């Protein structure tokens, strides 16, 4: 049995700005902006993510305008 995370697209992104705690605007490598939220693991102990930070994003193939921040690099 596969999990929901097996089918997601993974890429690096750059944080453009913070909307609220845990909600960010991130740029994909192709320049497209997406709304990104913290994964459950990161939300438990929210890291300080400054503008310009590089993050690992997980994107559902069903909604390419939203992403989950899986890791801060």
Automatic annotation (TrEMBL):
<dbReference type="Pfam" id="PF01176">
    <property type="entry name" value="eIF-1a"/>
</dbReference>
<feature type="domain" description="S1-like">
    <location>
        <begin position="1"/>
        <end position="73"/>
    </location>
</feature>
<protein>
    <recommendedName>
        <fullName>S1-like domain-containing protein</fullName>
    </recommendedName>
</protein>
<keyword id="KW-0396">Initiation factor</keyword>
<keyword id="KW-0648">Protein biosynthesis</keyword>
<dbReference type="InterPro" id="IPR012340">
    <property type="entry name" value="NA-bd_OB-fold"/>
</dbReference>
<dbReference type="InterPro" id="IPR006196">
    <property type="entry name" value="RNA-binding_domain_S1_IF1"/>
</dbReference>
């Amino acid at each position: 049995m596969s999990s929901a995370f097996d089918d997601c697209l993974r890429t690096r992104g750059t944080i453009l700005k913070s909307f609220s705690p845990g909600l960010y605007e991130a740029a994909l490598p192709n320049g497209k902006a997406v709304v990104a939220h913290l994964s459950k693991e990161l939300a438990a102990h929210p890291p300080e993510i400054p503008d310009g930070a590089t993050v690992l994003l997980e994107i559902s193939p069903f909604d390419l305008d939203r992403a989950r921040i899986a890791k801060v690099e």
